[in-house]
Amino acid sequence: MRRAQVAVVVVVVAAAAAGVEGIMFHLQPNTQKCFKEEIHKNVLVSGEYEVQEAQGQKVDIQVTDSKGHHLYNKEEADNGKFIFNTEDYDVYEICFVSRVPPTIRGIQQEVTLKTKHGVEAKTYEALGEAAKLKPLEIELKRLEDLSESIVQDFSYMRQREEEMRDTNESTNSRVLYLSLFSLCCLIGLATWQVLYLRKFFKAKKLIE
After folding, report:
1. Fewest beta carbons within 10 Å, which of 29, 47, 100, 205?
2. CATH number of 21-122
3. What is the pLDDT of residues 139-172, one digit of tens each?
4. β-pair partners for 49
5. Residue 154 belongs to what H/E stretch?
6. Interval 44-86: pLDDT, tens
7. What is the DSSP letter of 206?
8. Could you tell me how far CA 20 lies from the centroid of its own chain?
9. Spatial distance between the Cα atoms of 60 and 77, rounded to a whole number of angstroms
């Protein structure tokens, strides 16, 4: 029973590490539709898209990072593929831009986008042919890369957990210091009020 549970966990993690995403949406005339995603460093990313044809309408596609670097750019795109390797942990953006002349009454266009990350983005068949590997060796290579990807994901999750813990500890320390400072201010203010009122009452000869 325990082995079965471990197997299920491995399958779930493997599916998450595969990183395959697909989406279909409608692009309105003269509008822009963008998708953002945070991706780790040194991750292979591939994408395949298809844009519905519409008379006189054009659609451009751009793939950029948060620094504005263009990783892929194509005007009048109808269908195609792109691939790039991430140089740093960053937010990457895929944008589809519709361009319709003012003399044409535009219609919405159906756009299909499918992206793959990490192991799923690699073409192991081509690698196997280049290295003259047997099918079993290709599958072992794929499993090796998948295992490495899972280890990297766990390492990243552990790093994020440590960062969040450090942030929580730092926040708790600041709250504690602020509370102590506020308490000291209140004690000081209360003491000053007592002394001031005592001096005032003595001046009025209400107390000795």
Report:
1. 205
2. 2.60.120.680
3. 777 788 778 878 877 888 888 898 899 899 889 9
4. 80, 113
5. helix 135-203
6. 899 999 999 988 899 999 999 998 899 999 999 999 999 998 9
7. S
8. 15
9. 6
Q: What is the DSSP string of 100-142?
A: --TTS----EEEEEEEEEGGGGS-HHHHHHHHT--HHHHHHHH
3-state secondary structure of 34: strand
CB 82, CB 47: distance < 8 Å: yes
Longest dimension (CA), the chain: 106
Rounded Cα gap, residues 190 and 195, in angstroms: 9
Tokens of 175: 């709250």
Neighbours of 89 (CB within 10 A): 12
CA dihedral for 36, 39, 41, 47, sign (positive or negative): negative
The two beta strands, 79-85 and 70-74, are unpaired
User: Both tokens of residue 65?
Assistant: 């990072």
Q: Where are the domains of the chain?
A: 21-122
Cross-strand bridge partners of residue 72:
63
Residue 93 in tokens: 């953006």
